[in-house]
């Protein structure tokens, strides 16, 4: 993708959660992500570069952070 995927982790009152470890995993369509893990910054955000798989169609990734809800990201690849 041209732009990074950015996940923002917030707590009560929509306050950014700093230093939360996240892991990104491609779950559909192949391709890759870099970096595959990291921690949220002062804005509660973490970014990753997502390269779609080589075949047109649905691509998915998830971002996980311990017991927090999973973030699902989907995109359609048109190589």
Summed up:
The protein is an all-beta fold.
- pLDDT averaged residue by residue: 93
Q: What is the percentage of strand-forming residues?
A: over 45%
The secondary-structure class comes to mainly beta
Instruction: Count all strands and give the number.
Output: 7
Cα distance, first to last residue? 11 Å
The biggest beta sheet is recorded as: 4 strands, antiparallel
- Whole-number radius of gyration? 13 Å
Helix content range: under 10%
Query: Any idea what the shape is?
Result: elongated
Characterization of this structure:
- The chain is mainly beta and about 80 residues long.
- Helix content is about 0%, strand content about 50%.
- It has no helices and seven strands.
- It has strands spanning about 5-10, 20-30, 30-35, 35-40, 45-50, 55-65, 70-75.
- A four-stranded antiparallel β-sheet has the order 4-2-6-7, with no helix packed on it. The chain has a three-stranded antiparallel β-sheet with strand order 1-5-3, with no helix packed on it.
- It is elongated, with a radius of gyration of 13 Å.
- The termini are close together.
- About 10% of the residues are buried.
């Amino acid at each position: 993708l041209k732009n990074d995927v950015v996940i923002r982790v917030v707590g009560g009152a929509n306050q950014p959660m700093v230093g939360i470890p996240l892991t990104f995993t491609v779950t559909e369509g192949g391709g890759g992500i870099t970096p595959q893990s990291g921690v949220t910054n002062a804005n509660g955000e973490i970014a990753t570069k997502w390269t779609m798989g080589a075949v047109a169609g649905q691509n998915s990734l998830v971002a996980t952070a311990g017991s927090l809800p999973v973030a699902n990201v989907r995109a359609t690849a048109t190589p």
